[in-house]
Structures are given as structure tokens and as C-alpha cells.
Amino acid sequence: MKKRMFIVVGTMVAFIAAIGLFKFFQVRAAIAQQSSFQPPPEAVTTIVAKQEDWPHMLSAIGSVVAVQGVMVSADLPGIVEKIAFESGSQVRKGDLLVHLDTSQERAQLAAAESERKLAAVNLERMSGLRQKGVTSAAEYDRMQAESQQSSARAGEIRATIERKRIRAPFAGVLGIRQVNLGQYLNPGDPIVQLQTLDPIYVNFSVPQQEVLNLPVGAAVTITAEALENIEATGEITAVDSVVDEATRNIQAQATFANPGHQLHPGMFVEARVHLGDGQKVVTLPASAINYAPYGDSVFIVEDVKGPNEQTYRGVRQQVVKLGAARGDQVAVLSGVKPGEEVVTSGVFKLRPGAAVQVNNEVQPSNSAQPSPEDS
What we know:
- The chain has 375 residues and is an alpha+beta fold.
- It is 24% helix and 36% strand.
- Helix 2 packs antiparallel against helix 3.
- The protein is elongated and about 165 Å long.
């Protein structure tokens, strides 16, 4: 009985050992097959890195501001009697814009003028009596003061009448009319915008460490995305004396000629300050950069040796130091050498050592001054 039991147990142990040995060799073969497996190559586009002259310039976002701009408003209350301008027209300094009703002031002026003339006659009569010694000096002084007061009252009413003739404070271009005939205006009610458009200012802010690179007179070029083919060149005319404590930026102001009035106050523009001769750097399309918190990098295509000692076309990840950008291009200050083949699209799906297949039939944009069709 015991002998039979030993035989059964031995048989089972041998069976289990055989199965375990079979599985061991099966797993080892799968591991070997997996280690020699090479994933299919990823389709990418590439560019051969080369050096270019990179201009030394500073880019910033700016806003167009009128040299002189104001909302013309009512100074005194009154009813609009006459509108002497058209919306959008050009005016000269002193041109009449709106005339408020002055019928009450004219009546008051007529009464004041009568009082002034009477006071002048009385003063002349008193002057003759004073010369003859008939009246006292005090009476003469009182009459002289009354004459001056009546003249001042008449002048005050004339000034009020003139203030109800609202004129352009400077030459410029008017906006859209905001009043109508017969409308009652309170002091401060808006009438029309008045802006000087030629020349015109562009204000922009730069980091505080760039303040020494903003000399007055430096050339500035602006482009406006809102309108096509707008590019103007001016110069820095002022730099603020205070750095903004919240942003640590300092504001600069450039002046531009604007004869066609293409630039309007409030318009968004991109300003580029030219700071002299540039430097030679490697330029790459922005799509070639793999941006990451721990450091920016690119993938360089080269011959890579696999685990089976066979060579294939793969990629090496290279950390780079970036400079300024212009258009679709980015300046690479270090990390890439001229002549190296760099991946320009498909970066997001690569890893170090990945096999690639280069297809450059369609290339990403690589222009310093792109003109997108949808812009």
C-alpha cells in the first residue's frame, strides 16, 4: 500500500516538474523574443540645422495711443441749437463743433451793457465834479468801482456765451457724433471723440532688465495683425522713469508717422526694437521644440545601434537652450550643431532611441515673417 502511494506521489512530482520546466523555457523564449522586438518606425519630418544671422531685437506687445485725444464734452448746461460737424471729419483747432442756445445769456448781456454804459456816463460826470471840488474822493471812488463792476459783469456774460460755442481744442479727426439737435446737455455730457492720428504713439512694456537696451532714438518696427500689410517704422521717444512694482516692467513710448490713418488708438500691435548688429545662431521651426518644465529639448536623427547590434535610423533627445523667437522660427543658443538633422514634426510621439522614417514631402512652416491664410 505504501509502495503504491510513493509511486503516485513520485509520478505527480515528476509531472509537475515537467510542466514547470516546459513553462520556464516558454517564458524565456518569449522574453528573448520581446527583447529583440523592434517597434515600427514613426513617420517624422526633419530639417538640417544651419546657422543664420539673428538680428538683435526686442519684441513686445504694444497699444496704439493718440498723441492728443479727448472726448469733447459740454462745459455748461444748455440745449443744442446747432451741430457744425460731421462724424469722422477732420477739423482744425478752434473750429466750431456745437452751439448751445444762448438766448437767455444774450438778454442778460444786453442789460449788462446798458448798466455798463450808464456807469461809464456817471463816472465821467463824477470825474468833472471831482475836478471842481464839488464831490468827495469817496464818492468818486465808489462810482469808479461800480463802473468796473458793470464792465466785469458784461465780460462774464460774454465769456458764458462763448463757452456755449464748443470748439475743437486741437486739430484732429472726429469720431461718431453723440448728440442731437434740441438735446439738453448737462456739464460733462459727451459730444464727440477727437483724436490726433498723425503722428501717433505706440506704448509697450519690457522687463526691467532690458531698460538699458532702450535708448531714446532706437528704431522700432510694428506690425498689426488686425489689418493686412500694416508695418511701420518709428523710434523710441520716451522711456518711463518708474518700473511697475506689480509686473517689474517698464513702459516705453515710440512715435510713428501715420499719414494714411491706418493706425487707430486702442489698436493691438507687435513692436520690435532694433538693438544693433545680431549674432549667428542655429534656427529651427518652433514645431521642433519639445517644451517641458525640466528643460526644452529636440530630437536629432542619427544612426542608432539596437540590442541585436544592428544599426537603424533613430533619434537622440538633446536638451537645448533657446533664445528669442520670430515668426515660426526659434533661435537655439546651444545644444544643436549646424549640419545635424533635427525632427520638426511628430516630436510628441518620440522617445529616446525610437526608430523613425523621414518623409519631408510636407514640411511645417519655417518663416521669420509668416502670412497665415486665415490671419
